[in-house]
Give the backbone structure.
Amino acid sequence: MADEVLSQNEIDALLSALSSGEMDANQLKEEEKEKKVRVYDFKRALRFSKDQIRSISRINENYARMLTTYFSAQLRTYVHISVASVDQIPYEEFIRSIPTMTVLNIFSMEPLDGRIIFEINPNIAYSMLDRILGGKGNSLNKIENLTEIESTIMSNLFEKSLDNLQEAWSSVADIDPLLEEFEVNPQFLQLVSPNETVVVVSLNTTIGETSGMINICIPHVVLEPIIPRLSVHYWMQNEGQKERKPGEYEKLTDNLSSTILELGVVLGETKISVNDLLELTQGDVLKLNQSIEDPLIMRSDEEPLYLVQPGQQKNKVAVQVIEEIKGGSLDDE
């Protein structure tokens, strides 16, 4: 906890009280010697450090961008998703904080233990459903009487987004997420004990003109095996050190070798006024800045590559390579 800084007025008042005898300096020293006790709530144990929470937040910021792209393509409308907050709270508190009737998708995270919950606000869920069925994305909350077809459509929509979840977590763990359950009543869910610490990632979600929240609940038991990887030290140590997959280099080389590259050779250049350009007629001669005795320059995307000399081959204009321009630069330029 940071030390409290006194203002100048508070310092003057303290000195005045000491000098007038209203406050005893010895009494202050005795109070400083007393042990300071901080209240700790064992029901709200903080099992993740701030560093680890920041890493989880960074992973889900990337995931939110992926979801934005995915839902925009699936729903064919404006979608914006961003991370609102990342908190660690008891599981019981998370269950109490969400609506009594809502949309819940439960995913396993193999090979990690446990399961995670996606809670989608009914306004967002029905806006998605309306868009998929050809509507304008209006929200109609009738969560208590979802039909089997509507439940299947919602489940399929989020099940297809699992590739994005897998990619977002690939920097710290190779997971294979799988949709296991679809539920509308959070009281029927008991993934972990009520006092178990969970990380809740809240995503601000806008679909067309409808706004709401998507909450991701990740129990501590799921993240426990990879907690050491949720640190700045791990991220910095592994940055740029990923090994290439077998055959990846050869495949990349083959693709580059077959790439079509456009080459160009300029015979020469000159500058004339706009008036002279307008008065050009057939038979006029323009003097170029290129001597017929000097080699020409072959370029690709304005980058000089070779010195060449013009010629002819099989009744077509051609050039012959004389010398490579080292480093893509010219000594005389």
Remarks:
- Residues 50-75 form the longest helix (26 residues).
- The radius of gyration is 34 Å.
